[in-house]
Specification:
The complex is a heterodimer of chains A (324) and B (277). Chain A is built from seven helices and 18 strands. With 324 residues, chain A is of the alpha/beta class. Chain B has seven helices and 15 strands. The chains are: A alpha/beta (324), B alpha/beta (277).
Chain lengths: 324, 277
């Protein structure tokens, strides 16, 4: 049985595997649970019990599997109700969720249902001397980050974007596995799925070694960036300004609300360098930045900075690399 | 049908300065903008109204200085505008913010549809729309790029997920968050612009709004800032040069070669990147 308290991680299942972000959190949450002196519990909702066993290999003391055939797709209402019930009976002190689209859909609703605090998109977590979980979030504009705590209400809900923590290696299946078979009915769904169209491009920027990243200064001309990325065997990423403008797919957003990347090389073109973006490249091995503005903060985050206009530089660079 | 569009005014990130000594943000003289994805939300709501009729009300929370931004929404085509403005609303986290906005929707007599941007460019938590839906007891659909009304009580929303798009039928009333860039925002109408300067933006204070005074502002916010610190920045070389494009390209190419790029194999390891959508 799950005792009261504990650090819980909601693990999101995507098709036949758990989302990497859920496992990344599980890896980090082990240390949080140890520092708090509490148990680590991984909670998941799946259509068949076989899947639950996979979670037992990532260091949790206990794995709780909510199993029902109708749980093969996420639904806000069903999942909020299920998690509310588990949280009320298990009374965890902390609940982590991966900030996937469905994870955020769920976290925001669940936090209000439970009338508790939510710290979104932390870039690091620690336990302070007062045994409180502190979630660090980049502050506006740059330079500072804010440590957020939820002192009085439980659980403290925390969401984490993909790539923030390293992916743990699966070990022996050591967690105690508990299966719960909740009542779920077709009528309890809040929505009806009419269609699902799988996406061809499911590139995972967190696993890419080379990134060519464009911001406002590209003026939307991402074709040039794609040429360069292709030449370097890498992928194209973007800042929020570029994805908000519709210049490129939202899933390629890098930064606090996008993905946190760890490439060997990042070539950053026409991005001003707001901290919400630079947290997404600070784990890069080498950063090259090109920007017209010599005072752009991006140069503080770069190894090599070039002050100048993008288009002529990138065009010549692509040519130079062809000659390589 | 009443549609409420939630709209947030955010400072331009590049203009905020940080005082590293005091670890505080200097927002003085910083210009603001309407949060980009909230403009997309407005556009999507207006397009639905143009097709199906009804009223679009923009709703915001903030100081009286936000009024001109709401006038922009009126000039773009919103029917009316409401600003929830009171010092008591200040310091709100997502729980208190979503509660206050929900009270705002209730003060309008509720809505069939509430449309929000998917997240703000400053706070960026993306948690207000689902929170708002929960406070109101409405259905929700988040990260939507397409919205239709196939019937009087149903919303059809296409959600953009990591591995595909999901089309859902959701019963009204509902809260929807739309992706920034999902729809081209219409131009200002100049006749409306002139009219909007004279239009009334309804300003509602905490007393008039009613509800639970313990659920708004700082008091209603379970999360608190325990500390601020300088972002630990990785050690970078910080070499900045200003040269002609040719020399710049050569310099970058040299650096890339030193790092083993492009890879020896002429064929890149991955397929070409997907085009912009």
């Amino acid at each position: 049985m799950t005792g009261p308290g504990g650090v819980w991680v909601y693990a999101e299942r995507r098709g036949t595997a758990f989302r990497p972000v859920s496992l990344e959190i599980l890896g980090r949450a082990r240390g949080v649970a140890d520092a708090l002196g509490e148990r680590l519990v991984a909670l998941t909702a799946v259509p068949a019990e076989g899947a639950v066993q996979d979670l037992a290999r990532f260091g949790a003391d206990e794995v709780v599997g909510l199993v029902h055939p109708l749980l093969d797709r996420y639904d806000t209402r069903v999942y909020t109700d299920l998690l509310e019930r588990e949280v009320r009976s298990g009374a965890p002190s902390v609940l982590f969720l991966g900030a996937s689209r469905d994870g955020q859909d769920l976290a925001g609703r669940l936090a209000v249902r439970l009338r508790t605090g939510l710290t979104a998109h932390v870039t690091s977590v620690e336990v302070d001397p007062g045994h409180r979980l502190v979630g660090w979030v980049p502050g506006f504009g740059g330079g500072i980050e804010a440590g957020i705590v939820c002192p009085d209400r439980r659980p403290a809900i925390v969401t984490v974007r993909p790539g923030v923590f390293p992916l743990p290696v699966a070990g022996a299946a050591r967690s105690y596995v508990r299966l719960v078979r909740p009542t779920v009915e077709a009528g309890s769904f809040g929505s009806r799925r009419v269609e699902f169209e799988p996406k061809g491009d499911t590139t995972d920027l967190t696993r890419s070694d080379v990134l060519v990243i464009g911001g406002r200064g590209t003026d939307g001309e991402f074709g040039r960036l794609q040429q360069l990325a292709h030449r370097l065997g890498g992928e194209v990423g973007a800042t929020r300004v570029a994805t908000d403008a519709g210049w490129i797919d939202r899933d390629r957003m890098i930064g606090q609300t996008g993905v946190v990347t760890h490439p060997k090389v990042a070539v950053v073109l026409g991005a001003s360098g707001a901290v919400q973006f630079t947290v997404g490249i600070e784990k890069a091995g080498f950063v090259i930045a090109v920007n017209r503005d010599p005072d752009a903060p991006i140069f503080d985050a770069a190894d090599l900075g070039i002050v100048g206009d993008l288009a002529p530089i990138v065009d010549r660079l692509v040519k130079a690399l062809e000659g390589a | 049908m009443r549609t409420v569009v939630c709209l947030k005014v955010v400072p331009r990130p590049e203009e905020v300065r940080v005082d590293v000594e005091t670890k505080t943000l200097d927002r003085s003289g910083v210009r603001s903008v309407v949060n980009p994805s909230d403009l997309t939300a407005l556009e999507i709501a207006l397009a639905l109204r143009d097709r199906h009729g009804g009223r679009v009300t923009v709703l915001s929370m903030g100081p009286p200085s936000f009024v001109p931004y709401l006038r922009v929404a009126l000039a773009v085509g919103a029917d009316d505008a409401v600003l929830l403005s009171d010092r008591a609303f200040g310091g709100a986290d997502t729980l208190a913010t979503s509660y206050t906005l929900a009270q705002g929707v209730r003060s309008l007599g509720g809505a069939e549809l509430v449309v929000c941007g998917d997240e703000s460019s400053d706070g960026g938590t993306s948690q207000v729309p689902p929170g708002l839906a929960e406070w109101l007891g409405y259905a929700q659909a988040t990260y939507v790029d397409r919205l239709e009304l196939p019937g009087p009580t149903t919303l059809r929303a296409r959600r953009v997920l990591e591995d595909g798009t999901e089309t859902l039928d959701v019963p009204l009333p509902a809260v929807v968050s739309v992706l920034g860039g999902a729809s081209e925002v219409r131009f200002l109408d100049y006749d409306r612009w002139a009219a909007a300067q004279q239009a009334t933006v309804k300003v509602i204070d905490a007393t008039t709004l009613g509800g639970d005074p313990g659920a708004i502002g700082l008091k209603g916010s379970p999360t608190v800032v325990a500390g601020l610190r300088e972002v630990r920045k990785p050690g970078r070389r910080h070499e900045v040069i200003r040269v002609e494009p040719e020399a710049a390209a050569t310099r970058i190419a040299e650096e890339l070669r030193r790092l083993g790029l492009p890879p020896r194999e002429a064929s890149p390891s991955s397929r070409p990147s997907a085009p912009a959508t």
